Amino acid sequence: MQLENSFVIQAPPDRVFAYLLDPHNVVGCVPGAELTEEVDAVTFKGKVKIKVGPITVAYSGTARMVDRNDAARTAVLEGEGRETTGPGSGRGKATMSVVADPEGSRVTVLTEFTLTGRVAQFGRGVIEDVSKRMVRTVAECIQANLQTPTQMPGDATAAADQPSPPKPAPPEINAFALLLHLISVRFQRLFGRKSA
Description:
By secondary structure, the chain is of the alpha+beta class. The protein has five helices and seven strands, in the order E-H-H-E-E-E-E-E-E-H-H-H. It has a seven-stranded antiparallel beta sheet with strand order 1-7-6-5-4-3-2. It is globular and about 45 Å long. The model is unreliable at 151-182 (pLDDT under 50).
């Protein structure tokens, strides 16, 4: 399956690209995700949880940056994971690019992936909608983090005197609630067409 998502961040492209290359920044914005180990400079292990109704599906896996072009502001990440409580698995490749946009930077992520197990039962439509919601949540988090004032050189003492507020954890995506929403929308479209 292949999905493409893009979003605009109101910050310069070089700053956005540098921010996205740090896995701590990205994982901190992904709902239900946790970075568990840095194997080396380009390989990371982590976990992610996805709620599906009363069931929470948890994955544990490894991601590796296989290509990076700072001049073009592109990066390619490959990853694979397994369900921690079931036979499901996932494998994928994500290609990210950051380009200048009139509002700052446009981030585009092209993802090719394969899923097996319980999540795969939902099909492309639900997976696309979950993906779009998750990308929107991630984009809002990145925007908020990049708008946080950065410390200027020479302000080390002022920064040390003021503790930074903790970042709130992003909410988990509830796939069951999303599924109900999609069914509701589709019924509204169906009945809207018949009454017109």
